[in-house]
Specification:
- The chain contains 5 helices and 13 strands.
- The strands form 5 sheets. Strands 2-3-1-6 form a 4-stranded antiparallel β-sheet.
- It is an alpha+beta fold and about 240 residues long.
C-alpha cells in the first residue's frame, strides 16, 4: 500500500551546496536518483541496523556511514543507496520523520555519493550542527561545541566564535578544496570570530544546514555564510601598509 503515499515528484529541501551543481540541476538529478540522505541519527546506530530498516522498503545496494573526519567514527548521518528509484521513493515516503533508535530521523533525496562526502565538515570533524549546538545530547557525542552564541538584544541573531574555515572545495575529506592556494592560506591563518548568522530556510546537507533546535527531534534551519568582506585588508601586520 506504500504506493498510495508516493508523491508525483520528489519533494526535497536538502541541497548540498558543495556538490558543484546548481539547485535546478540538483533537483533534476534526484528525479532519477536511487540514493537517500539520512540525518539526525544516533552516533551509536550501526550500519546493520540501518540496512535492516531500509530493506523493508526495497533491495538496499549499500549503506555509507557518515564519519568524523578525524576519528573515522560514526557521527550521526548516512547515505542509503537502493537498486531502483522506486524503492528509494518508498523509503522517503514511509520513513522520513519516523522514530528510529529513539530519534526522529530525516530521510531525504540525494543526488549520489562521491568519495569524501561521508566525512563531517564541522571543525570537530563531526557535522556543523553538533559544533554549533550548546546542549548535551548523549546520543550525539555529549556536549555540543557551542560555537554559536546568542547576541544580547538581538534574539534572531547569533555570533560564530569558532575558527572559521571557508573551504569551498568539492567533497574533499580534508576540508580543503580546489580554490587557489593563496586563498586557502588566507582563510586558514587563524581564528576568525564575530561572524554573524541569521536563521533562515533549510538547505540542510551534513554541513550546510543548522538545526534551530537540537536533540532527538531536531528542526532544521539554514547556515548562511559569514559577512563577506568584513575586515578585508586587515590581515597580518605589515600587509598592504608601508
Amino acid at each position: 500500500m506504500a504506493h498510495l503515499y508516493q508523491e508525483l515528484a520528489p519533494a526535497t529541501q536538502y541541497v548540498d551546496k558543495k556538490s558543484g551543481m546548481s539547485k535546478s540541476k540538483w533537483l533534476e538529478a534526484i528525479k532519477v536518483s536511487r540514493t537517500l540522505y539520512v540525518g539526525n541519527l544516533s552516533f551509536y546506530t550501526s550500519e546493520e541496523q540501518l540496512h535492516e530498516l531500509f530493506s523493508k522498503c526495497g533491495d538496499v545496494k549499500r549503506v555509507v556511514m557518515g564519519l568524523n573526519r578525524y576519528k573515522k567514527s560514526p557521527c550521526g548521518f548516512c547515505f542509503v543507496e537502493f537498486h531502483t528509484h522506486e524503492q528509494a521513493a518508498q523509503a522517503v515516503n514511509l520513513l522520513n520523520k519516523t522514530s528510529f533508535d529513539d530519534r526522529l530521523i530525516r530521510v531525504d533525496w540525494d543526488a549520489g555519493v562521491s568519495e569524501g562526502r561521508q566525512y563531517g565538515r564541522g571543525e570537530s570533524g563531526n557535522q556543523w550542527r553538533d559544533d554549533f549546538r550548546g546542549d548535551y545530547d548523549v546520543a550525539r557525542g555529549g556536549h555540543g561545541g557551542n560555537l554559536l552564541k546568542k547576541i544580547e538584544d538581538q534574539p534572531d541573531r547569533q555570533v560564530y566564535v569558532g575558527k572559521l574555515k571557508n573551504a569551498h572545495g568539492r567533497f574533499n575529506p580534508n576540508g580543503l578544496g580546489d580554490e587557489p592556494a593563496a586563498k586557502r592560506q588566507r582563510t586558514d591563518e587563524g581564528p576568525t570570530t564575530g561572524a554573524i548568522f541569521k536563521p533562515g530556510p533549510s538547505f540542510d546537507g551534513f554541513g550546510g544546514g543548522l538545526p534551530m533546535t537540537f536533540g532527538a527531534h531536531a528542526a532544521y534551519g539554514f547556515f548562511p555564510g559569514a559577512d563577506k568582506g568584513k575586515g578585508k585588508g586587515k590581515g597580518k601586520k605589515g600587509k598592504g601598509k608601508p
